[in-house]
């Protein structure tokens, strides 16, 4: 039985004296003795034992379930019922009966001997009723605001459904466009490739390729010669510095003199003699200057340095790109349009106007068929078409993303784990509320992120992103308790501590507001928040008027 209904029961049933003391209204009917002749007996509530009726509430525990002592503290684990006339009856553990302390749950003082605790049920009851009235008023007004949130969710449903349908259509159109452009790019590319092959057959290009091959072969030979020359030079250097002049071997002396002359070196016997020669490098460099001068004589010829360092670059030229470039400079030869334009040079003046009219029509048809373009134009077309294809693919991806986002939002709209079964929280997604406390402004953007901003400037700390509603064990998903908390997790890491996190303790209020902020543990923050989304209509749950 609901405790409020107790107020409707006749007072004699609720007698707080004798056998029925401490018995709750629900059990009153079971505290009736059984007559056997002149004797009265009573059965323990668990049916385990029959005792004398006078043993009920005699301050001695007889029944194993403690049911024989509802009005005393004799049995452990039994309950005592305070009638609390003028307020609401309530149960307390029997162990707290007669302990000399006035239990707040027993405003009538019935848990203690008469005169120990005053009966304050009138005042307590009145204050309680005032409180309930104020809460009712708040819920009534708050629930009106809440209903606008519910209506918003309904509109959102329609908007998202429309968006999904529209993006679906857009996707179909964009997919067709992408397919068309891809086909165009492929066709233009294959046309370009065929035309390029044709260009490659030109004598100029073929000759260029032969030159490239010859140059590569010469480069290879040149490198081999350089290596051989270096090896020979080393042998002769060793001979020059290591031979014994005392042997008077003319063949060796001749070879040394010859090498010294060729390499521009002083005779080995003179090296180190005062004033004769400054040093070998100087002599050598004089010689190089002469060589350079000689080379400079033939204008445009490459120096040894250029041959060594620039030949590779030259041979790595993109000759196909050059071929396409070439067309731009000399004009694409023999394309259908160029033939038509050049023909006018050979016609008599009188025929030119007629010829030009026909020519323009033919060109238009050729262009429509994609035949009236040169290689370089085709290359430009390909890259233009490729760009159009890339753009179309990008737009398609964006539209698909738009559709996915809308579908995700629609799925969340009436999901209890997100915006509630009626979608009442959707309106508040991204609503930011804050409170200045101490050196910081604490802000939470609902379903998004909580932050801590220093009032006097400095960097803002993220206190975490929305993680879930109250998913503590035993809390039913979608119940009022579930929506009484929100968790924000994985914020900025605390120095030597955890990542910052926030728990919102939420209750019904006319405004979306942060009432207070605390940091009960280092970097774990608790915000007290109100929101009309939590103001359930009066007929949904909570205290009903008739129970007062
Ligand atoms: C900052 C703020 C505080 C926090 C400390 C931890 O000062 O985020 O709230 O307690 O860092 O070092």
From TrEMBL:
Name the residue ranges with Acidic residues bias.
277-291
The question of whether Endoplasmic reticulum is a record keyword is answered with yes
What organism is recorded for this protein? Lentinus tigrinus ALCF2SS1-6
Query: Which keywords fit this entry according to its UniProt record?
Result: Coiled coil, Disulfide bond, Endoplasmic reticulum, Signal
Please give the coiled-coil regions recorded for this protein: 150-184
Identify this protein by name.
Glucosidase 2 subunit beta
**From which residue to which does the signal peptide run?**
1-15
Stored SUPFAM superfamilies: Mannose 6-phosphate receptor domain (SSF50911)
Q: Does the keyword Endoplasmic reticulum apply?
A: yes
């Amino acid at each position: 039985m609901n405790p409020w209904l107790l107020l409707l029961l006749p007072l004699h049933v609720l007698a707080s004296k004798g056998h029925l003391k401490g018995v709750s209204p629900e059990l009153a009917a079971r505290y009736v003795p059984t007559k056997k002749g002149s004797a009265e007996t009573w059965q323990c509530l668990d049916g385990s034992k029959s005792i004398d009726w006078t043993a009920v509430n005699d301050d001695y525990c007889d029944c194993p379930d403690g049911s024989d002592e509802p009005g005393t503290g004799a049995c452990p684990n039994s309950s005592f019922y305070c009638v609390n006339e003028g307020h609401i009856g309530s149960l307390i553990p029997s162990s707290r009966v007669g302990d000399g302390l006035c239990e707040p749950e027993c405003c009538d003082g019935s848990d203690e001997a008469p005169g120990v605790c005053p009966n304050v049920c009138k005042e307590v009851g009145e204050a309680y009723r005032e409180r309930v009235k104020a809460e009712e008023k708040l819920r009534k007004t708050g629930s009106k605001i809440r209903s606008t949130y519910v209506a918003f969710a309904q509109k959102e449903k329609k908007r998202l459904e429309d968006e999904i349908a529209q993006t679906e259509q857009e996707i179909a159109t964009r997919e067709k466009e992408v397919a068309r452009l891809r086909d165009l790019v492929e066709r233009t590319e294959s046309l370009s490739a065929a035309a390029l092959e044709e260009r490659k057959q030109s004598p100029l290009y073929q000759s260029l390729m032969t030159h490239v091959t010859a140059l590569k072969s010469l480069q290879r030979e040149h490198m081999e010669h350089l290596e051989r020359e270096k090896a020979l030079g080393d042998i002769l250097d060793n001979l020059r510095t290591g031979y014994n002049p005392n042997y008077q071997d003319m063949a060796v002396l001749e070879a040394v003199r010859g090498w010294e002359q060729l390499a521009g070196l002083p005779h080995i016997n003179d090296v180190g003699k005062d004033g004769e020669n400054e040093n070998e490098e100087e002599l050598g460099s004089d010689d190089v200057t002469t060589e350079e001068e000689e080379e400079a004589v033939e204008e445009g010829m490459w120096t040894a340095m250029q041959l060594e360092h620039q030949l590779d670059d030259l041979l790595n030229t993109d000759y196909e790109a050059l071929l396409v470039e070439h067309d731009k400079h000399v004009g694409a030869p023999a394309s259908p349009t160029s033939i038509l334009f050049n023909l006018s040079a050979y016609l008599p003046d009188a025929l030119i106007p007629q010829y030009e009219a026909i020519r323009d029509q033919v060109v238009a048809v050729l262009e429509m068929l994609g035949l009236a373009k040169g290689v370089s134009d085709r290359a430009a077309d390909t890259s233009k078409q490729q760009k159009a294809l890339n753009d179309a693919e990008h737009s398609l991806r964006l539209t698909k993303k738009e559709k996915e986002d809308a579908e995700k939002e629609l799925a969340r709209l009436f999901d209890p784990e997100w915006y509630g079964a009626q979608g009442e929280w959707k309106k508040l997604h991204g609503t930011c509320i804050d409170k200045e406390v101490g050196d910081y402004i604490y802000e939470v953007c609902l379903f998004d992120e909580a932050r801590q901003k220093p009032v006097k400037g400095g960097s803002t700390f993220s206190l975490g992103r929305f993680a879930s509603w109250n998913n503590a064990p035993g809390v039913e998903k979608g119940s009022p308790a579930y929506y009484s908390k929100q968790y924000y997790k994985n914020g900025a890491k605390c120095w030597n501590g955890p990542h910052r996190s926030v728990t919102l303790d939420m209750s019904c209020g006319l405004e979306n507001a942060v009432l207070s902020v605390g940091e009960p543990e280092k970097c774990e923050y608790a915000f007290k928040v109100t929101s009309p989304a939590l103001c359930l209509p009066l007929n949904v749950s909570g205290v009903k008027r008739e129970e007062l």
